[in-house]
Amino acid sequence: MKKLFLTLALALSTSTLLAQEPSHTSTITLSVGGQPYSYNHFGERGGPAVSGRYEFRLSGYFALETGIDTLLPTLHSAEVVSVISAGQNLISVTPNCSVCVIVPLSERTRDMLLPFGAKGILPIASGRVELFVGFGGAYAWHSDYRQSLDALLAQGSLGGRLALDRKRHFWLGTSLRGYSNFGYNRQEWLSWTADFGFRFGH
Predict the structure, then answer these.
(1) Which of 132, 150, 18, 20 is nearest to 65 (CA)?
(2) Contact 36/49 with Cβ under 8 angstroms?
(3) Which residues is 2 bridged to in the sheet?
(4) Residue 24: helix, strand or coil by DSSP?
(5) What pLDDT digit, counting tens, does each position of 45-63 carry?
């Protein structure tokens, strides 16, 4: 029984080592998806998300990563006007102006995130499937606000991907990424994307 256990452990260790991706490979990943949740000081909520990532593999289980994420959330605000146009919805009459009304406004804004960090990778199924967890930081800047409102965020990610070819150049997967800071001008972003990657180098 003991000999059988040692044999299985050795076989598992050998298969794991063989499944490792060689170090010093690079992966470029393009992603598209959306924001199922967001909260921030500016009142932006949800919307589409696109991103591009570059990953450099330091070992079979560890990589460095950077890239750029573009979020297109919806900004809900209100405007005080003296005349309400046809098709606009009335929210309320302002207390200081009986002839003025508040109407809702909805527009799309753009937020750019520059993430950086590291990624732990677990290759399985002879290296054809990879599960990963990432961590690091990100700098966020907003298209419609002053530079003083931009922020440095913490970021984390998790996901998986599947090799589409035997040489493992092309990958298809999904990622869940979260960003957050604390204190003044707090903002939180959560994006879920479908990912397509191309790996090269050795």
Answers:
(1) 132
(2) no
(3) none
(4) coil
(5) 778 999 999 999 999 999 9
For the chain, residues classed under CATH 2.40.160.20 are 14-73+109-200
Give the type of residue at 75.
L
Tokens encoding 122: 């677990």
* Backbone φ and ψ of 94, nearest 5°: -70, 145
Q: Could you read off the pLDDT of 124-172 as tens digits, one per residue?
A: 999 999 999 999 999 988 776 656 568 889 999 999 999 999 999 999 9
β-pair partners for 55: 27, 65
Closest CA to 50 of 64, 74, 69: 69
Rounded CA separation 129/13 (Å): 17
Domain 14-73+109-200 of CATH type 2.40.160.20: yes
